Amino acid sequence: MGIVDKAKNAAEDAIGKAKEVVGDATDNKDLEAEGKKDQGSAGVKKVGENIKDKLS
Question: In what residue span(s) does the CsbD-like domain sit (predicted)?
Answer without folding.
Answer: 5-55
